[in-house]
Write a structure and sequence with these properties.
heterodimer, A: mainly alpha, 2 domains, two-stranded antiparallel sheet, 21 helices, globular, B: mainly alpha, two-stranded antiparallel ribbon
Chain lengths: ~475, ~500
């Protein structure tokens, strides 16, 4: 039964993608609904199972471990699955308003969309390095395809650049995987944790894989492709890319670091990764402050916010683990809300230049409200999911007397406030002296509502932390290997 | 049933204005009548709820709402004597200010946004009043920053945007330090509810230096909003906001929230004894004294009526800090009672300044000549507020100064008397010339910019000022009665100094 649910999570979207290509255009909306609506209902029993047992493992198609495909579900995968399914539904609402399923552009968009979802689900379940590679490729290529549906020259150029860098990154990762296989004779993430001993070859492999994955998750200073790609993609696509696509490769890094290399003592490399995160927070925020377009501000904000997810390495411990995972979820929802709202604003004004957004709160109140609520969470102001993450990071840093990291987290919050309040000030309170000759096309109510719901979800995470944190506590690998 | 009521009442008192605020946003700009009714109904309902909670507190109960926010960290809304002092003040003044603001902003744009955030701002103030632990306090304190910023930048002029930026710079930096202090404190003690006498009093002096640093981090966090020198710079700049905002910011919401936080910090977190043992009281008292004198001196140099009032606020709010920093029951009474007194007097002054500006375009001090003949009632209210600030009996301000002085002598801090005398002289120096112009000079041929305002509106604005002015007089005249703020504060302070 559980096996069937997991298989449904992966194969329903993939099946839907195939059907979309074959079926007549009038059926497409029905197909989309039919493969999306069951997903949360698949996750519900799985959540109960994980809350109870903590872990579920299965082998696909009956082959045992070295040959067959092994799937593994724990609290971290489960939470990111929930994030992805929520995004699929809510961002999907906004995308549905923009890319009508029955239209030509719908035919280009929706199969890729489902491919992306299926790829993410398979990635989160995969338990070996090679399957992670395959699924990550699937996610990246689907993502690039989605950027290109935007159709503008800038979007195509950004997609091309992303493609080239992503291919190079995949090669690095694959090279690392090859080295690991040569050394250990297995690719299972969790078996490797027991067999692979620290040494020159495994270390080289780890560095290669990390380098590839850091490029894919756009961690400073390897982030150069992200702002252009996320800033020029259509709004709903940017939302998915920023909220989850960059994070699944980071998720693989976490898996490698804390499971495969869990008992290697790596304080110095951990510190280095943390410093990259610090660089991301400072550099991303600083550049977000000077952007002239709304979507570019949001894109640079992603560069900055990803930095927090790197703090788990130097602060490694249960609190930091909970903090980073919580931040991942809260940022996912808030950032999706920002991009959906920004996409709506761009679509209805024809421009998202900040100078032209004066008086927007009168004209698009729902989108601006979503923007403001999501900003509250991103700045880490209470009560919001972002605040819980920030609080846990500060606690984690405090527990380890890591005053530098504490100062960084506090400063990061202030910088986020600086660039987001700048946007809010320009959109809501600036007098309309610059004039706005552009006429306004109201965005579809459903699209605005989707942004608002995402933002509300990010705020609501500030109140529902206890069960999520309990789940995460059970999944912390430090608890398993004493 | 009663237990249920005790649980939900504090939350209801906080959320009623949040609900009103959201309804106002949803109703939109055009539905003016609905908005007016929502505003007044919510303000009345809040007053009733606060009154109900007040009755429960008087009967010896402590209604408490508690929900886990993070494992081991609760969001607690709890009504005790001190929270009722602040809650009653803000509920009462919110009602008056709402009526005033409806009339004041009759013809200006973006009223839905204004009143929506206005209501949310009062929600945060009520949350601060009812907060039962430092985390809850912090959450509403941040919410207050978020909800007052749109009010400060309301007009959207470049001056307003600039002062909004300054406001955020100060408050958000302050709250970042506050948060670090909070994390540190919770690292030492775990989450603790406010209790009279201090939650960490029993911790002892093991973490002597850490406790001192935490204290100052938290003082900076609160001091930004309480406008302690040198953290006060945002306050005079925020004067670009419309008059009702200035009135509420100064009398109740932001500045008072900071001062109230300092009271909680000293009395309920550290406890007066620990503050005295760690030697933190004297530096805080000195800081407050510097603020009192500095604010008054700068007020002398202001030519703009609202600016002068702003610096007067910087000075006056620090009386509260001074009282609790001196320590001892009498000075603490003086500090706490000033929370109410300063609120009533300062809101009156800002209401009057708003009327002068709105009806006659009078914004500068030299334009006040003879305005007493043109607007006698408003000028009378202004006079009551100003005399109260100087500390002339029987207006409320006198009682605060009396208790502060007597308390300082009781604690052997004689230098405080000099501060009080100097401050009184300075207060007189910057308020009496205004009164002289108002009553004794001849009115000009023509007022700077006379607006025609309907009788109802001017009646609402002037009526609000008369109401607050008479409150200020009444709490001074009737201070001996059992339900007066003075008796209430005396009751609270007996808990702190048994």
């Amino acid at each position: 039964m559980t096996e069937a649910l997991l298989a449904a999570l992966v194969f329903l979207p993939l099946l839907g993608a195939c059907l979309l290509l074959l079926a007549p255009s009038s059926w497409r909306a029905t197909i989309l609904l039919a493969v999306t609506v069951p997903l949360p209902f698949c996750l519900l029993p799985l959540t109960l199972l994980i809350a109870d047992a903590g872990l579920f493992e299965m082998t696909l198609a009956g082959h045992p471990a070295p040959l067959g495909i092994r799937w593994r579900l724990d609290a971290l995968s489960l939470l990111i699955l929930w994030l992805n399914v929520s995004l699929m539904i809510l961002v999907g609402l906004a995308a549905g308003a923009r890319f009508a399923p029955a239209s030509d552009v719908g035919l280009r968009f929706w199969p890729l969309w489902l491919l992306l979802a299926g790829g993410i689900h398979a990635l989160l379940l995969s338990a070996d390095l090679f399957n992670l590679y395959v699924t990550l490729e699937l996610v990246t290529l689907a993502g690039i395809g989605l950027i290109a549906t935007g159709g503008s020259g800038a979007a195509l150029r950004a997609a091309m650049r992303y493609l080239l860098l992503a291919l190079m990154a995949s090669l690095l990762y694959l090279l690392g995987v090859g080295l690991v296989y040569a050394e250990a004779g297995t690719l299972d993430l969790y078996q490797l944790g027991e067999t692979l001993e620290p040494g020159l070859l495994p270390a080289t492999a780890l560095v290669l894989m990390l380098a590839g994955l850091l490029v894919k998750s756009a961690i400073f200073p390897l982030h150069a492709w992200l702002p252009a790609a996320h800033g020029n993609a259509p709004g709903p696509v940017s939302a998915m890319l920023s909220a989850i696509v960059v994070k699944v490769s980071l998720y693989i890094i976490w898996r490698l670091w804390f499971w495969t290399a869990g008992d290697w003592q790596l304080p110095a490399p951990g510190l280095l990764l943390g410093l990259l995160g610090a660089g991301a927070i400072l550099y991303g925020s600083a550049l977000a402050l000077v952007q002239k377009r709304l979507k570019m501000v949001v894109a640079y904000s992603t560069v900055a916010q990803l930095g927090y997810l790197m703090l788990i390495f130097p602060l490694s411990g249960l609190l930091a683990w909970q903090a980073a995972s919580y931040h991942l979820i809260a940022h996912g929802l808030a950032k999706a809300a920002l991009f959906v709202a920004a996409g709506n604003i761009l679509a209805s004004l024809g421009s998202d230049r900040l100078r032209r957004l004066a008086g927007l709160d009168q004209r698009l109140p729902m989108d601006v409200f979503a923007l403001a609520l999501a900003s509250v969470s991103l700045m880490g102001l209470p009560p919001s999911g972002g605040f819980v993450g920030k609080w846990l990071f500060l606690r984690a840093a405090y527990e380890q007397n890591a005053w530098g990291w504490m100062a960084l987290v506090a400063l990061g919050g202030l910088l986020a406030a600086a660039y987001l309040f700048r946007v809010l000030a320009l959109t809501c309170f600036h007098p309309r002296s610059h004039g706005h000759s552009t006429r306004l096309r109201e965005p579809p109510t459903l699209a605005s509502l989707a942004g608002l719901l995402l933002a509300l979800a990010a705020i609501a995470l500030g109140f529902a932390s206890a069960p999520i944190l309990a789940l995460l506590e059970a999944a912390w690998p430090g608890a398993m290997t004493p | 049933m009663i237990a249920q009521l005790m649980f939900w009442l504090p939350l209801a008192a906080v959320l009623v204005s949040a609900f009103a605020g959201l309804m106002i946003f949803v109703a939109g700009e055009r539905r003016q009548r609905l908005r007016t009714w929502l505003n007044i109904a919510a303000a009345l309902l809040k007053l009733i709820l606060v009154g109900l909670i007040g009755l429960l507190v008087m009967a010896g109960h402590n209604p408490e709402f508690r929900v886990a926010l993070l494992p081991g960290l609760d969001l607690v809304l709890r009504a005790d004597g001190l929270s009722m002092l602040f809650a009653t003040l803000s509920a009462l003044l919110w009602l008056v200010t709402t009526i005033y603001a409806i009339a004041y902003l009759e013809h200006s744009p973006n009223r839905a946004r204004f009143f929506g955030f206005f209501s949310l701002c009062v929600t945060s103030t009520m949350g601060i009043a009812m907060a039962g632990n430092l985390l809850t306090f912090f959450i509403f304190y941040e919410l207050l920053t978020l909800t007052t910023w749109p009010l400060v930048v309301h007009t959207g002029s470049s001056a307003a945007m600039a002062s909004g930026r300054t406001y955020l710079r100060y408050t958000l930096t302050g709250s970042a330090l506050f948060l670090i202090g909070l994390i540190w404190l919770y690292g030492l003690t775990g989450s603790q509810d406010f209790i009279a006498g201090g939650t960490i009093a029993e911790l002892g002096l093991d973490n002597d230096w850490a406790l001192k640093i935490i204290f100052w981090l938290l003082v900076i966090g609160m001091g930004v909003k309480a406008a302690l020198v040198p953290l006060h710079r945002w306050l005079p700049l925020a004067m670009v906001a419309p008059a009702p905002v200035s009135a509420l910011l100064h009398a109740v919401a932001v500045v008072k929230a900071g001062a109230f936080g300092l009271v909680r910090l000293v009395e309920d977190v550290f406890g007066p004894n620990l503050v005295a043992d760690l030697g933190l009281g004297l530096p805080l008292a000195v800081l407050a004294s510097i603020t009192i004198i500095y604010g008054s001196v700068l007020a002398l140099y202001q030519n703009d009526i609202k600016k002068r009032l702003a610096f007067s606020t910087v000075s006056q709010v620090s009386y509260i800090t001074l009282g609790i920093a001196i320590g001892g029951p009498v000075a603490t009474i003086g500090g706490l009672i000033h929370l109410v007194h300063q609120g009533l007097m300062k809101i009156t002054l800002f209401f009057c300044a708003g009327i002068f500006a709105n009806l006659l375009g009078v914004k500068k001090i030299e334009q006040l000549d003879g305005i007493g003949q043109r607007l006698p009632w408003t000028s009378a209210c202004f006079t009551v507020g100003a005399l109260g600030m100087i500390g002339l009996p029987p207006v409320a301000g006198f009682i605060s100064k009396w208790y502060l002085g007597a308390g300082a002598v009781a604690m052997g801090q004689h230098w405080v008397i000099a501060v009080l005398v100097a401050s009184t002289l300075l207060n007189a120096a910057y308020f009496l010339p205004l009164l002289k112009r108002i009553w004794l000079h001849l009115p000009p041929e023509q007022w700077p910019a006379e607006h025609r305002v309907s009788r109802l509106e001017s009646a609402a604005m002037i009526g609000s000022s008369i109401a607050t002015a008479s409150f200020a007089l009444a709490v001074g005249l009737l201070a001996g009665l059992p339900l007066s703020p003075l008796s209430w504060v005396t009751g609270i302070v007996t808990d702190y100094f048994p």
